[in-house]
Amino acid sequence: MAEPPSGDQVSAALERMRHVASAWRQVAGALAEAGAMTDDTELTRLEAGLFQVAFDKYAVAPGFFRDRLAEGTAVMGQIAATLSDNANAYAIEEALLLHELNRMW
């Protein structure tokens, strides 16, 4: 049977989970910024000029990308929240168990 993790190992694992959660939040922020940039890619019929035939197919593209980027932003945020919540719950549980063990001695 494997040895239980040491306090340092638990602390390192929790710190790593929080670090990874922060990275997911950064990615969510980058996707949100990219989604905001899609506004600059929308054209009006007047701006399309001679490309009216292609305009109908192109007109939906910025909205499509904006929607997918919004979905990605939401999912990345959920992943970050899940990692943070689990790290916090694990830290609380670890502290409670340690307290119980100390009380037993």
- Major sheet details: none
Distance between the termini: 24 Å
The total of beta strands comes to: 0
Overall outline: rod-shaped
> Strand-and-helix sequence, N→C?
HHHH
**DSSP strand content:** under 5%
Helix proportion range: over 70%
Our Rg estimate from Cα atoms comes to: 24 Å
* Class based on secondary structure composition and strand pairing: mainly alpha
Number of domains: 1
Low-pLDDT regions:
none
Q: Helix count, per DSSP?
A: 4
Arithmetic mean of pLDDT: 91
Folded structure, characterized:
This protein has one domain (10-104). The model has no long low-confidence stretch (mean pLDDT 91). The chain has helices at residues 7-37, 45-48, 52-58, 61-104. The chain is an all-alpha fold. Helices cover 82% and strands 0% of the residues.
Helix and strand topology:
Blueprint: H1 7-37, H2 45-48, H3 52-58, H4 61-104
Any descriptors?
mainly alpha; rod-shaped; 105 residues
Kindly summarize this structure in a few lines:
The protein is an all-alpha fold and 105 residues long. The protein has helices at 7-37, 45-48, 52-58, 61-104.
